[in-house]
Amino acid sequence: MTFSRFGPMLLAVLIVSAFVFMPTSIEQAMISDHDVAQAASSLDPDVFQGIFAQQKMLADKKYLPIYGSSELYRLDRYHPSNYFMVKPDGFTPFLVGRGGMYSLVHFLSLSANADQLKNRKLVFILSPEWFTQTGLDHLHFKPNFSKEQAYQFVFSSAISPSLKKKAARRLLHFSFIRKDGNLGRLIQDTADPWRRAPTLRLADQLMGRATYKVLTLHDLLETHRIHPGYKKSQYQPPDPHLRQDSWQQLRQSAKKIAVQETRSNRFHIDTRLYNAFIRHHLRHFKNYRKNENYSVSPEYKDLQLVMDLLKEKHADVLFVSVPFNGKWYDYAGVPRQRRERCYKKIAHEIRKNGFHLADFTRYDSKPFFLQDTMHVGPMGWTYIDRSIQHFYNHG
């Protein structure tokens, strides 16, 4: 009688306990190859804020991860995901990014998968707009912040203690992290391991591991339900006609599209975007960025965190440096000389750290590399595709 009354409850407790104490290696094994394939070009937030899909992807050398921000959503026919589908070269691009994903966001994502980064090829697209005097702010960081990755960062033994301290101190600049109870205290302990009594640290670590386990279970469930995180209007299907085109032919066809789509204005901005958001308010944008510097920014140190981690893991990385829309930024009050200082500093930092650099900043004042004020357009993707292909085959 007692068993019949409490049996279902005990069974439920056993089932829940089995999930809670399940090793993460078993959870990762529950992610199928199909799940990863679905995630590759989905740009679903659960992919970049989770761990398992990225871990499974990094373990499979057929994927080439591409880290970036909102430019990845411009899924035209020349976009790497579409181009290398119709003209494969031994790899499948795996996209990690959305708007507001600056270097620090990517650092957490990469640190959560640090073991899988060893000797791994990957591509990292840099936007010069990240390098403002304020750098990453609360508005862009909080929606892209992953608690699961932050807990993994705290508990990770795959990152050097000195780098963990440096990164933890940077994370504590953000009040929403400092005030996040258990996680905030753990990050403070990472930044200063001797600030509290061992018993208090242990209690928070136990609580943190339990919370982390709940987050990984959520990650596991969501990875099985991945769906595209972009709007249908942002996607153009692969074009099989591009299969036979040379790089020169690709640029010519991309340029025709760019000319047609941006001919309405002197800034070479996509006509639909220009008419919707700029045309009737143009005078308000005159000199609206005149006080921005771009060569003095906390973003440079955040980028260094990323490079320090990648160096520790001996990752083979291609950084892609894209330009400003020079004509637009002239109007916005940021002269070419100021932009050049930013370009040179980014290039210097990347080369100083020993990484590959595809530098397209020479297209600053040339039309059609970008399709609006900041995002890569069809012609720009053809240049980037060629650099990715060369990097993958020749390093």
From TrEMBL:
The gene is dltD. NCBIfam families: LTA_DltD. It comes from the Bacteria. The keyword Cell inner membrane does not apply. InterPro entries: DltD (IPR006998), LTA_DltD (IPR023896). Belongs to the DltD family. This is Protein DltD. The keyword Membrane applies. Pathway: Cell wall biogenesis; lipoteichoic acid biosynthesis. SUPFAM superfamilies: SGNH hydrolase. Pfam families: DltD. Keywords: Cell membrane, Membrane.
